Amino acid sequence: MPGKARTTKAKLQSAAFRRTRSDHSKELAADYVELIADIIDERGTARGTDVALRLGVANATVVKMLKRLTDMGLVTQEPYRPIDLTGEGWLMAETGRKKHQIVERFLLALGVGEETARIDSEGIEHHVSDETLKAMGRFLARNSS
User: Fold this and answer.
1) Cα within 13 Å of Cα(143), Cβ side
2) Which residues, listed in sequence order, are joined to residue 85 by a DSSP beta bridge?
3) Each residue of 54-77: pLDDT tens digit?
4) Average pLDDT, stretch 76-98?
5) Contact 74, 88 (CB under 8 A)
6) Are 114 and 104 in contact, with CB atoms under 8 Å apart?
7) What DSSP line would sit under 95-120, residue for residue?
8) What tens digit of pLDDT does each residue of 22-55 get?
9) How is domain 3-143 classified at the CATH fold level?
10) Where would you tag: which of 22, 65, 103, 126 has the fewest CB atoms within 10 A of its CB?
């Protein structure tokens, strides 16, 4: 492969890997925030134990992540009090929900089974670009019955 083509390929690969690493670093925070929003919507309040139960992790794991989310400005929490999402946290949760819904509907439109579409969309939503998400939305608008 000539030098210029090799350099171009390397730059494209590098950009893809950088984006994936960036997506992974935000993925866990987005999952937590979306789950907290779901619990608040369902029960009126969310506590660390609720989050731990839903995720199947230890309370200590949730406590550590809540500290990180607090530092990121996504949640507020006082000791022995419910978890509150900040405005930024609610925005992140709503954005994640919308992405999830579009990806899941797209997979269903392709003929993917309901359970598989729900599970797969949970991972895909974090990695799909805005361009691809918009294309999925356009596809759904053209092909919805």
Assistant:
1) 13
2) 75
3) 999 999 999 999 999 999 999 999
4) 94
5) yes
6) no
7) HHHHHHHHHHHHHHHTT--HHHHHHH
8) 666 678 899 999 999 999 999 999 999 999 999 9
9) Arc Repressor Mutant, subunit A (1.10.10)
10) 22
